[in-house]
Amino acid sequence: MATIVVQRTSEYLNRIRNYGVYIDGKKVGTIANGETNEFSVSTGQHLIYTKIDWCSSRTLNFDSSDNEIRRFEVGGFKHGYWLMPTAIFIIILSYILNLKHDFEYLFYLAIPIFLLLVYYLTVGRKRYLNLTEIKSKPEIALL
Fold first, then answer.
1. Distances from the Cα of 26 to the Cαs of 29, 31, 46, 139, in angstroms?
2. Domain membership of residue 55 as a residue range
3. Whether residue 59 is found in the same domain as residue 102
4. What is the pLDDT of residues 19-76, one digit of tens each?
5. Residue 25 needs a FRET pair 20 to 30 A away by CA distance; which of 12, 50, 97, 100 works?
6. pTM of this prediction?
7. For 117-139, what is the mean pLDDT?
């Protein structure tokens, strides 16, 4: 048996939701924010992906040999950690400037951010999560 180690980055956007971990199309467990989990797989070729609601990561193909440890890292989409706070800041600043100085155009700066979020929730839903294999020197699991 080989061991698959999946570590999840700590992030703001999906902090309270768990990601499902799927190996060969079957859900083998979940992973919480900042957590690391291990899963056992048989030797041979496998597919792995992670999923949250209707969004997922790309499917990665990997080979495992007996007593091998393969490491993967999963997190939200690129730059997702700053999109929502930036959009909220722009909306609040726009509201304040509109009340104080009748300046109403700053709100439009938040539109590209929301369009990017809409992209990742619709057309780019299979890229919402970023799953990558952590390349390191081969390790042998101790029995």
1. 9, 15, 11, 25
2. 2-77+128-134
3. no
4. 999 999 999 999 999 999 999 999 999 999 999 999 999 999 999 988 899 999 999 8
5. 12
6. 0.80
7. 86
